[in-house]
Amino acid sequence: MRDYIGEYVDVNDADGQRLVWRRRKPSQTDYRDATEPHDRGAVLVAAVFDAFLQIYKRRTRDLLRLATGGTEILAAGAIPADLVNRLAQEASKVARHILDICIRALDYCPPVDMTFGEYLRALITADTDLVPVDEHRYRTAFIAAFRDRGIYPGDAKHMSPDSLVWEPPTAPLRDIRRVLERMSIEWDLNIDRLNAELLSQRNAKLFWQWLHDDREVSDKEVAALGLVRLDRPGPYRLGSHLGELSRIAVQSVRPARRADPGGVIHWDVVIELTQTFTPAEQPRVRFRGGCTLIINFGSALVRYVVRKRVGNALRFAEQMAFGGAGEVANNYFTADAIGSEPFAALHGMYG
Asked: What is the pLDDT of residues 90-145, one digit of tens each?
């Protein structure tokens, strides 16, 4: 996973022949040229590491100015121990911030078919939510690092922080407070895993019932989520393909508490919904749509709807062209596998 950060090269100089590690220069073609899954993962790791380096250099520039009389050029030889300690402290702080941002962004991702460009939007949105004033330019560092590796969000107008933040929903589920008040979501990391799962299942059932009550939620609001409300699985046309569309599934309902730099707690509820289309001519293919709802618990305001429409014919065609019915799909859907998704079952047994 470190291949795109740097590599060892043979050097033959006055010290003899030896292996020297050198940082690899980012290229706009890195993402395009990485076709294997692990290579793509390495590109993502390298982009995040590039952002770390940019932020670390900004945060330590004042230390270098003090240590070098303003030149920012260190003299040859060992640097003072006090400077080593301060630089290490800054590196640790930046690494912790980067890790927090990357983990926090997972709540802002679509529940299916996520791209690296969408993950960048999730990073920028998550950080903007918690730290509105980007004093140390973390967000511009992430954007520059992803851009330098050729990673772009397909639906953003500009590569600027304001443009990459997810937009608020057009139909924001105005009566959602009614179902939130019936849920049990006032739990945190101190709860044991079994009770957390049982509460999540209960909350998912309540939300599913509320979402399918047309007196509570309009068809327009459901359509704005990129989903189709059905009482039971039924026939559906996606582009030129006929098949069956499942009912909406509520995959998870979870609280998300976050403390901003001032110590203020922000409390959201994150709900993930999915729906599956199965083409009649290839019944082992599964095409999924869905959305992630991020809801402020206090105001019951749906702040973001991060969606991938189940009725997106272009995305379905891209999946089929990639291998939706061929070798790739067979890794996930085979008749003789354990369950309906053997790859997921494999990871469940050995992961």
From this structure: 999 999 999 999 999 999 999 999 999 999 999 999 999 999 999 999 999 999 99
Q: How many CB atoms lie within 10 A of CB 313?
A: 13
Query: In this structure, how many other beta carbons lie within 10 angstroms of the beta carbon of residue 18?
Result: 11
CA dist., res. 325 & res. 323, Å (int): 5
Is pLDDT of 336 > 80?
A: no
Q: Is 231 exposed, middle or buried (0-12, 13-18, 19+ CB in 10 A)?
A: exposed
| Residue located via tokens 């980007």 | 134
Task: Write out pLDDT tens, residues 110-119.
Answer: 999 999 999 9
Place of tokens 């040859």: 76
Q: Say which amino acid occupies 35.
A: T
Q: If you write DSSP's letter for every residue of 200-244 in order, what string do you get?
A: HHHHHHHHHHHHT-TTTS-HHHHHHTT----SS-EEEEETTEEEE
Do the beta carbons of residue 269 and residue 295 sit within 8 Å? Answer: yes
Q: How far apart are CA 50 and CA 148, in angstroms?
A: 9
Token pair 């393909």 in the structure block, residue: 241
* Alpha-carbon span 108 to 196, nearest angstrom: 21
Judged by DSSP in three states, 247 sits in: coil
Nearest to 290 by CA among 315, 273, 267: 273
With 70 as the cut, is the pLDDT of residue 29 above it?
yes
253 torsion bin: left (phi>0), alpha (psi -120 to 50), beta (else): beta
Structure token pair of residue 60: 């330590």
**Tens-digit pLDDT profile for residues 233-265:** 999 999 999 999 999 999 999 999 888 888 888
CA atoms within 13 A on the CB side of 128: 20
Helix and strand numbers (H, E) in the chain are 12, 8
